[in-house]
Request: fold
Amino acid sequence: MKSTANKRLFLILTLLAVIGALGTLIFSSFTGALVYFHTPSETTAKGTELNGKKIRIGGMVQAGSLVKEPGTQKIRFLVSDGKSHLPVRYEGMVPDLFREGQGVVVEGVWRTGQDFDADTILAKHSEDYVPVEMSEQGIANSQKSLLKSLQ
Amino acid sequence: MWIEIAHFATLLALFLSLVLFGAPLAGMHWKNMAWVRVARQAAFWICGLLTLASAGLIVSFMTHDFSVKYVAEHASLKLPTFYLATAMWGGHEGSLLLWAWFLSLFVAIAAWRHWETHPVSMPWVLSILGSLQVGFLLLVVFLSSPFVRLLDPPLDGRDLNPLLQDPGMVFHPPFLYMGYVGFAIPYAFAMAALITAQGDGEWILATRRWTLFSWIMLTIGIVFGAYWAYYELGWGGYWAWDPVENASFMPWLTGVAFLHSVMVQERRRMFKTWNLFLIITTFALSLLGTFLVRSGVLSSVHAFATDPGRGVYILMFMTVLLLFSFGLLTTKSDQLQGATQLESPWSREFSFLVNNLFLVAGACTVLLGTLYPLAVETLSSAKVSVGAPYYNKVFIPIMLGMLLLMGIGPCIPWRAASLQYLRREFLVPAIIGLAGLPAAWMVGITHPFGLAALALILFVGTTHLRDLTGNVRQRMNRESISPQVALMRLVGRNQRRYGGMLVHFGILVMVAGFVGSGLFQEERNLLLSPGDSLRLGDWNLTLESMGQTARRNWQAEEAVIRAERPGETVLLKPQKRVYNEHSQPTTEAAIHTTWREDLYVVLGEPVKAGVWAFRVYRNPLIAWIWFGSGIVTIGVLLAMLQGRRARRLAT
Reply:
């Protein structure tokens, strides 16, 4: 027959084991699940340091840069932050909000010296759903604020 | 005109909320109950005034009053009436007003229903709820007012975000908010119990229905959101671990923990501090949910606005609430000594304790993943995101552990179980669970998580069914009645227990849906011209034609796809819509639902003349998730009827 103290010790050890297992599970999964976000300028500057890492790049789809390969779902475009731009390749269906002049975040593995091969495109929802007939000035402003919100 | 009435009513409600907060304190200071009665009347008046304010805002929408900034930003002349009426919560300002209105409604109900039964705690309850009402109305009136007029009103509004023009999205926020706000009542009772040194558990019985109500509203809100994401966003899934989804999931998890651990306090007088901790955490996470989404801290479709003033206010609100609650808990915790101690790991209280650890670990997982990016961004200039792989890695083992405990918890006795009891109760279910493994292997389930989930579903299902049939048989023999009558009497005698078991059964159905759609989804990305076809599962899909279609405020490109399998033919019509006031197209997936699987077709863009991109999914068992959540709802409603024992304990 176990004594009461023994029983309590057993209970506490069981609880600690459960807590320890859960903690280990959470933290071991957490490290390695982080994906860092960079602007095109930062990516260019850090080039080699990021080589082989999964990253997100955010900016605007540069107007006039979107090229669709006819008959396939392959596209190429430039992501720009105003100072610098990066060529991106993607194959597949793009989100509804993806288009030239709009904010975009692309995710993929960075390889120095190559076009960025995106495996995911996340189109940013602009904060307000701006009507079509907005003025040029308004569009310029919303682009500025959007760019700021992306950084 | 209406908006001024609404604005004035809200200002008056704010003033009365100060009365609701202050009068009970005055009453207790001068030992005069008249003050408390004044506060009670104030609670009723606040409810009436905020009802008027909400009605005023809705009328402004219905009459297309675009001189109101909020209306101009969230409606247009062509917006259908149904969405006009519900556009009130289509944006940030109106949502907060809706929150405040729900709070006033619940406070009024609490002041009415608990007035006579809880005379000692009532002044504190009213005062605490009054302070929350003040906090929210200050936000509505000064920092995010939906009542602002435009000097130069536009002829037409900007229209409601097309993604929100959908029945699923119309019902998602109100249910979620009812859940969030509902937790304020148990929270206030818990705080009042601490202050008046009655932390013994009477507050738990008093607020049992409130807790169940809030939790089920939150559940329904989350499921509506998931369902909306599934059929409206067109990516074939329903849950993306988006920060906004996470925000509603955290109070849900701690709410489940709370619902279980209060039973331990009722029966065994243990976990008193823990229960208070859980209800504070649940309500704080409910507030965090509202604020994370509505402050624009998170970038997502839900976070409409960014305003630093609002963010600072909200941060202060949260800080005060947490300091007050946890400060009170630490200073008053000496009255919370448990009357008994844990005796054995083979007991119901221990299984509930481990269940709570799992649920809180789940909530910590989500909190870490949601707030870590915000912390990194604040402390350094780096921006980081935590992806779905992290959550899936942590949550699947946690879910499996929870399933195991779900089978054990309701069927193991309090205090300590003997080895013979354990063998009698759990040997057969364990064998049935393990026997499911080779069967599952032959059907084609090879993934270890899939196998484990299936074995556990069988295990839990068997424990619950055996418990039910055993008790029915006992009653039949004792009272010599038919099985139906025995079942009715059994459930009628303890609605809470059998309601809970029905909830568990609903969860099992949902888990089957998660496993089916999570592990066995098939996805195809392909290009089709009219006349082309493909095979998916036992379906044969053919693109019949492409065409145009239009409604009042949108036009669309529409594909017609014929899906056939032996004995069944359906037409699927996925669309690419363009709403008049918006240049961005939105995707309308076409979905064919059967109990076995969903066919899910998304139309993409043309890649050259006569060729379109399509994405086609086969989602096995996904309808089980929605169906299971219906069972969960019925189970909770049954549990809310209160069993005889709960009624006896309450008096």
